[in-house]
Amino acid sequence: MAAYVLRAHLGPLDPLPAAPAGVATVDLMAGERSLAHGIGRVMADAGRLGMAPTEVALDLLILGVLVYAADTRIPRAAFAQDSWSREIRLELPVRDPARWTAAGPLLQRLLRFLSGDIWEIAFRPRPARLMDLAPQRPLNAPPYDGVCLFSGGLDSLVGVIDLLTAGRRLVLVSHASEGATSDSQNQLIEVLNKQFGAIDRLRFWIGFNKTLLDRAGSKEDTTRARSFLFFAAAAFAASAIFDREVTITVPENGLISLNVPLDPLRLGSLSTRTTHPFYLARWNDLLQALAVPARLETPYLHKTKGEMLAECAGQDLLRLALTSSMSCSAPTKGRWVGRPIEHCGYCVPCLIRRAAIAAALGNDPTMYTLADLRAKGLNTVSSEGRQVRSFQLAVERVATHPEMAAALIHKPGPLNDPQNDLEQLAAVYRRGMAEVGALLEGVTAGPT
What we know:
11 strands, 4-stranded parallel sheet, globular
């Protein structure tokens, strides 16, 4: 099967030959010099904060947008020989093709690890009249000393509280996606503003018409490469805080970052690798190769979610904002049966959330569709019981043979970078599984 080719086009000033069969073109211009698909909007928002990104960071964001388009609009079932691994070729104009071409093999390795697809990326020069798309930098650098990813989840809430309590001057970076997540972000910002004063945030409204690549409206639901766009957005923001190297904080607990498969069928990209240590290390290599003065850090890599909550610097604020955070992987799935947007209570992120709150805070005020895990036997043929039983088996395996943790943490991907402390990673995996195990004591799940 031939690769699906997706090429970026910078409008009338960027002449391209007609697309041959099997090649789709994404026009990135909304006007002569205005970028489309949300890029121009976030550039304007950044300008209002006194931020002006570098040209290479803008190219990185454009690449992130193209990766996101490919990932969400090229269906695996139709364009993968094994119904999973797609062959995708991206072609885009950049300001410095030589620098980008040199970074190409690193990019392709990074993306293949993340999504399980085979990526090829080709670069060409921007048109002469579009060599300078980023706005001119102001005389004074903006008043920030760091960037923090802000998803609206519980981990990101803890991360922001800890950083702001420590006196950091942050700009938060969010991706405005489906309504439930955006609502959580807005509700949390309101609470945080009352505590810390007005907090500056860049929201990336990146989206595409469902018929972007196909008149029938092709769509892919796995979105494994979405975090590439998130990190590209954070690098875009970090590059606009000039005169210093900027730390991009990625607030994620160690159990989720490692994301060890719960069962043998969840190998590779069937388990997400959004913040896996190998992936983040390659991102830092990429930022260095592109001369973007920023670095991704995961300060909670050696903590469970429960430990993050217990050690949060603002306990009263955490409890106040807790129910506004959103952890569920699909909070709108109950709408088909008349349920409101809420946590399902039985997906993997919900179970880890429930376990962490029980371990750290005791009482959990979150509304769950499945409110009581012990009220009835859970059917493993359905989604309500499937993840619970998978967790129970994995918890039992680690509890019975704790030494296996040292091997299991390597299942999702390599951990051979010198900065990785394998003993601490194995330990946080054991403690994280024990947290979930405590939640599931007395819960019954099986086929019915």
